[in-house]
Specification:
Layout: E1 10-16, E2 21-27, E3 34-36, E4 42-48, H1 56-59, H2 67-78
Parallel strand pairs: 1-4
Antiparallel strand pairs: 1-2, 3-4
Length: 83
Amino acid sequence: MQHGIHPAYGPVVFRDRAAGHAFLTRSTATSDKTVEWEDGRTYPVIDVEISSVSHPFYTGTARVLDTAGRVERFERRYGKRAR
């Protein structure tokens, strides 16, 4: 790995604003804002709108779309595919 061409890779806190959950991980992302973590150290914090804690797919509240109806509507509009 060449020195001086890669961004700094270090600990960063990502805070989910929707769920009020935060987690510490390593990233190249940086921020001017900081937060004191559970271990007493100060880390840069990045606020995100949604994470796996609040995303409907991961929480089990995702809605299933009617894909069969969409396919039938497409076939009515443009015709079936010739095989």
